[in-house]
Fold these 2 entries.
Entry 1:
Amino acid sequence: MEVKTEPAGRLYDIFHEAKLKPEAHSSRKVWAEVFDVPEEDTGTILKMLAELIQLTHATKEKLEKLNDINHELYLRPFSQIERVLSHINLDAGWKHWKDQIDEPTIYGLQFCSDKLNRVTNYTKIPNEEIDSIKQSLSELTDQILNSELDNSLKELLVRNLEGLRQAIISFKIKGIEGIQREVELNLGSIILHREEIRSKSISGKESALLSKYFKFIEGLNKTISTAKNIKELGGKDFLKLIGIDNG
């Protein structure tokens, strides 16, 4: 299932998937399967649940800003969702949670999703493209870790890429906005350290690797721009931000 670009749709998909899980499962197992993380990784599960709470709040805010809807009607599902998320016990049986995710809540989220989709009109990103981004990100991280880049620059790039990796892990919850935020943070950190980068006298394989990093960021930016129908910043513009022009 492709991740929806508007927040109510992502909420609907997550809770709809969770509701279909067997009652005999533990809450831990259900949320681990929904978020696609190891069942024993308590920290990540709790982090994803916290992000799910933030998604709920962000969705409510978007609906509250609309002037052409009955706010009482459209916001009704969120009271139940907030009750579900207000008591987190991963060792409890799933039936307790599942019973609270009733059909009116699910249907309400569908209506919210339809409305916000008409307002934003974003394009979905195919799962195959997300899988390709994951693979390219993993390969690039390994190449940088095994490179001869200056240690401080290596740490900077790896830290930036780790932020992107976390955004992609959370893509099901945060959507395209999460990746966009990390792209912006990547560029911001590069601008902040541009004098340090320029002073490294990078050449040869290291220069090619740095260009590959920017090409990867450029590709992500293009994906975001296509999905959100906005103008993208080009790869050569990225390089110029730090005073590098490779033609």
Entry 2:
Amino acid sequence: MPDTEIKPSPSAGTRPEPPLTVLSEGDSLRGLLQMQGDGHLLGTFEGEVECEGELLIGHEARVTADIRTLNITISGLVKGNLSASGRLKITATGRLEGDARVGNLIVQEGGVHHGSIDVHPEGLPAPQPRPAALPQPAPPLTLPAVAAGRPQITASVDRVKKMWGEFF
């Protein structure tokens, strides 16, 4: 019986690269899209996107979503807020309608952004907790009537006039 040697596969001991997630042109999807690697959105998407790698919004893509990613390149339309800890690149055909918090910003001539943008080259600060519900306003104050039938505030004003009258 010949000696057989078992050799480990070349990928053994190395971490496999996360797969590329693609939403093709003509396809549409709604919901929460979580990608562990890179992603290409080339069709229509509505909802929320979480991408741990590079995200590409294609030229014909129409995305209505809040997006959190490492890096993003927008060549189509994105309506929603985004947070990119790395780079936001808006190409000449790209359009972002929403607020953005990014580490770095590149906007090519012709690229459009409507909204506010915060650029943090030192790294994105931790997200602020949402404010608690505002307390209900107190009911309006009503002034009790004094025995003479005049409101209390008028009686107070009369006392002030009398006091100041002694000085002037």
